[in-house]
Design a protein that fits this description.
Distance between the termini: 32 Å
Largest sheet: 2 strands, antiparallel
Number of strands: 2
Number of helices: 5
Order of helices and strands: EEHHHHH
Radius of gyration: 15 Å
Length: about 90
């Protein structure tokens, strides 16, 4: 969890991001902006709900997430390769 990985700490009922979490967020925004966009994370959340309800196969989801869908999402593999080339 984010607590165990020390991305946040508790202050009362609130979760407060650590320095590590802030640096990681900046890194993701700079190099993998698509992964932290609200629309994208919302779609991923919906897909994960479908998987947990047995309405979507997790391997199909992972394949599409990693290799792309041939439409809007190029896939994590190509995003990483693009960043490595820069």
């Amino acid at each position: 969890t984010i607590l165990e990985r020390e991305y946040v700490w508790r202050q009362g009922k609130a979760l407060v991001p650590t320095f590590t979490a802030q640096v990681l967020t900046l890194f993701l925004k700079e190099h993998f902006r698509k992964l932290v966009e609200l629309d994208f994370t919302g779609v991923i959340e919906e897909d994960l709900d479908l998987i947990s309800n047995g309405e979507m196969q997790r391997l199909a989801f992972l394949r599409e997430f990693y290799f792309g869908d041939g439409k809007d999402w190029p896939g994590l593999e190509s995003l990483v390769e693009r960043e490595k080339e820069q």
